[in-house]
Prior knowledge:
By secondary structure, the chain is of the alpha+beta class. Helices cover 42% and strands 29% of the residues. It has a 5-stranded mixed beta sheet. The longest helix is centred in the middle third of the chain and has 20 residues, at 26-45. The relative contact order is 0.21. The mean pLDDT is 94. Keywords: Toxin-antitoxin system.
Amino acid sequence: MKKLIVSPPARADLREIWDYIAGDSLNAADTLSETFYEKFELLRATPEAGRQRSDLKSSLRSFPVGRYVIFYRVSDGAIEIVRVLHGARDVDSLFG
């Protein structure tokens, strides 16, 4: 299985999401965080599970998780989680 790398911007995204959700429910924030990491493991096992996002960047892929989207890259030895963003965000401006 490929190595998992969570980039600093993705770590910041995860923290921001957790903080926002925790404002209403610590349990919901923890559950969503666990779900993200379960999906990261799924992507390690099946890197092609997400759709190609060459419209944003040539090597980028995305995978939905509820209202959020995991953006990641696949290399020979690793899966790099690039960002984790709410689906309503303007991703074109973030990756453009």
